[in-house]
Amino acid sequence: MDPRTPCLIGVAQRTVRRQPGPEPLDLWEETARAAAREALLPVDRLDSIQIVYTDSWQYDSPTGRLADRLGATPRHRAYSKVSGTAPQVLIGAAASRIAAGELDSALIAGAEALATRRAYRQAGERVPWSHAAHPKPPYGWERPPHPAELAHELFLPVHTYAIMETARRAAHGLSIEQEMRDRGRMMAPMTEVAAANPHAWRRTPRTPEELVTGNRFVGWPYTRNTVAVMEVDQAAAVILASTELADRLGVPHDRRLYLRGWAYAEDTWEVAARPALGSSRAIASAAASAFARAGLGLDDMGALDLYSCFAIALRQACDAIGLDPTDRRGLTVTGGLPYAGGPASDYVLHSTATMAARLLARRGPGDHGLVTGVGMHLTKHTYAVWSTEPGGALGDGEPVFAAEPVPIVAACEGPAVVAGYTVAHDRDGAPQKGILVVDLPSGGRAYAQVTRQELMADAESRELVGQPVELSTDGKVNVASW
Are 283 and 316 in contact (CB under 8 A)? Predict the structure, then answer.
């Protein structure tokens, strides 16, 4: 084997339930040290320290502060932007640098303490964390929302993903009731996985009916129990090393995992610009490229973890790769973002760490696993194949597919047809406003709000996709009526 072949040799996860808990820097240090112990690697020997963007707190120098805590002087440092694909992008880049001989080890760590932030806020106290950035830097967008999305108050994933869900529902000819029943049946097994995962945030098994009835809507048709839980205190870390270094450290071969191949692809950044709201060619391309690079296929996978922030992410993935949502292997090894926890941009570190433990514990035929990531509004996609056997071709972070956007018209009036929609609900469960993506006679798309209560009620009572509407505008916000 090439001595530069990268392998994963250390993982760690941490979930803190006491409130208030530690700050992200403490969690980075704790998981980094735990992963290094498993890797038999002294922390001050780390060649690269990379951190996934944290929403909880903006440090003046995230990688610098962690390096100081660890007593390390890495020659390479990186801090990501916001994205659920960021962990895999960092992992993939680190593996490529190791394979090229530019590094011999790399730590990728991530932590969120959003539950602790909420605890301080509810107590009326300021968060007493260290090394705040002054001035506070801009939010870590790779690209901010489109002005038309901001004008129509469409920037929360619970609304954008719900719009794509209704578009898929209509495209598949499902009734509202059937979509909800199918969602419950798809996600209830995930709660069983979370119940058995000591790192999971929610560890209560739920029936399909409990998931979709008896709890409030957040972005209709999504209920609170079927969307990612963000306010968690969780951290994870993984360590990659060259085979040569793993040999020198004395890491047994049965404690090494290999990235056989991975790929990245992009849909459009704006929801309304997506050629098909309910499906994704980008996912199919990312999966096909990752499997081709790995020299393996879906049937070879012994375990799967599909990114599950919202049901539509699971469904588009299953549609794209030809996977039955009730596949006997299950859709997650952690329990998924709604139950194991959805720590902002960090989740894929947790799914990768859990997948590593699963594959290394089993070490039998079919010891390959698929881990996927999703970024922004189902915009970015990563597919990674992990294996107990080396081989394949790593790939890189260049998009293997980028969707061509449909034109967006910011302000418009006149006739249109609903392409996808949601109704935003407040914390008391009351409907606030409807948000539509509409097809225009010109071939473009637009956003629109629904402000009349009776029309919101109508939208939740029947399939609105395909409904002709009339738009009016004040030059910034379009309002739909029918």
Answer: yes
Q: With contact defined as beta carbons under 8 Å apart, do 353 and 238 qualify?
A: yes
Report the predicted TM-score, pTM, of the whole model to 2 decimal places: 0.97
Residue 332 Rama label (left phi>0; alpha psi -120 to 50; beta): beta
Which of 421, 434, 420, 418 lies closest to 467 in space, CA to CA? Answer: 418
Q: How far apart are CA 259 and CA 198, in angstroms?
A: 25
Q: How many CB atoms lie within 10 A of CB 63?
A: 21
Decide: residue 247, CB within 10 A, 0-12 exposed, 13-18 middle, 19+ buried.
middle
Specify the pairing of strand 233-242 against strand 431-439.
unpaired
CA 56 to chain centre: 17
Q: pLDDT tens for residues 286-335?
A: 999 999 999 999 999 999 999 999 999 999 999 999 999 999 999 999 99
**Spatial CA neighbour of 413 closest among 473, 370, 363, 455:** 473
**Distance, CA of 385 to CA of 359 (rounded, Å):** 12
Are 329 and 303 a contacting pair, CB within 8 Å? yes
Could you tell me where the beta strands, DSSP code E, fall in 92-225?
A: 105-113, 217-220, 222-223
CA dist 203 → 138, 173, 248 (Å): 35, 34, 40
Alpha-helix residue ranges (DSSP H) falling in 196-225: 208-212
DSSP state of 132: B
Could you say which residues of the chain have pLDDT below 50? none
List strand residue ranges (DSSP E) for 222-363, in order: 222-223, 233-242, 258-266, 303-305
Cα separation, 396 vs 265, whole angstroms: 11
Give residue 269's pLDDT: 94
In single-letter form, the type of residue at position 384 comes to A
Q: CA-to-CA distance for 282 and 161, rounded, in angstroms?
A: 16
- Do 395 and 382 touch, CB atoms closer than 8 A? no
Kindly list the distances between the CA atom of residue 156 and the CA atoms of 160, 221, 326, 421, 434, in Å, as whole numbers in the listed order.
Answer: 7, 15, 28, 14, 13
Our measurement of the distance from residue 60's CA atom to the centroid of its chain's CA atoms, rounded to an integer in Å, reads 25
Evaluate whether 341 touches 1 at the Cβ level (below 8 Å).
no
What's the CA gap between 381 and 282, in Å, rounded? 7
Joined together, the tokens standing for residue 13 give 């996860």
pLDDT digits (tens, 9 = 90+) for 365-385: 569 999 999 999 999 999 999
* Structure-block tokens of residue 62: 């995230």
CA atoms of 288 and 366, how far apart (whole Å): 19
